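Changelog entry: the Nitronate monooxygenase record was regenerated in this release. Current contents:
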Amino acid sequence: MISTWLTKTFDIKYPIILAPMFLVSNNKMLAEAYKNGFIGCIPSLNYRTPADFEAGMVELHKECNGKFGINLIVNKSNVHLAEHLAVLEKYPPAFIITSLGSPEETIKRLKPLGVKILCDVVDVEYAKKVESLGADALIAVNSGAGGHAGNISPSILVPMLMKATKLPVISAGGVGTGAGLLSVMALGSEGVSIGSPFIATKESPVSAEYKKAVVDFGAMDIVMTTKISGSPCSVINTPYVKEIGTEQNFVESFLNHNKQLKKYAKMLTYYRGMKAVEKAAFAATYKTVWVAGPSIEFTHAIEDVQTIIKRIITEYEEAYQALVARQLK
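Regenerated structure tokens:
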């Protein structure tokens, strides 16, 4: 494996982040990432209360020797943001990934503590903004991402961000194989953030039904919906998703574009959507809204984290050797 900003900054073997996944990521998965040469990240909102969050930080520092990241939703939909920042000042992680808002406050409070600030971006405009605020790296959320995805392919987004900024770029989305990893690294990415292939793992806390769906469905079964949070989000196209549709109705759309009401409308949409996702993730229900990206195409069984990362690295090495062999012919 090549040495990159990601491997050198966090002293890890592989340039891979186990992506933060709402409801899916847990401490056990991050500990497995640490044991197997890469680094994991977990959403702060995966902990039910600020007290649970603080206990989780204590455990992760012990289990991962401080090598882990926290994903913060930094807009007003995260009502616990102030409390989470206070906890993170007490127990600083190796890095933060900020999403869906301005990272300014996070950078001001945590960067002086040695925490690296990585920011989710989907375009050049926002990338330049976070660079000016002092971000350390960009998470290039592309069109293959699970959950809140971008609309630009990695082959365009990664070099576009590299040209527009001086920050390291880490590609997020669409990688489920070693060949996919090689292709993204060849673009100049300093690493990749991989999520969906780890949903159907033994360490994952979600229901057996959710895991089975990740195994049974594929790339063609992924659709984008705005009904969960108001922003485009990739989900498995279950019968229930087909029933309710993927676009907001007239009233929802009107409220989300009204200057006076859109802040409250988005907060309500986000709250209701996340509750639906949470219910489906942990219990059998006909209201199945399962978040995932198209890289589930390459998930064919429920395995452990170690097995998946070993396969991806083996495939990467094989793809690299095959590429070299072709060039020598």
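The domain at 5-205 is CATH 3.20.20.70 (TIM Barrel).
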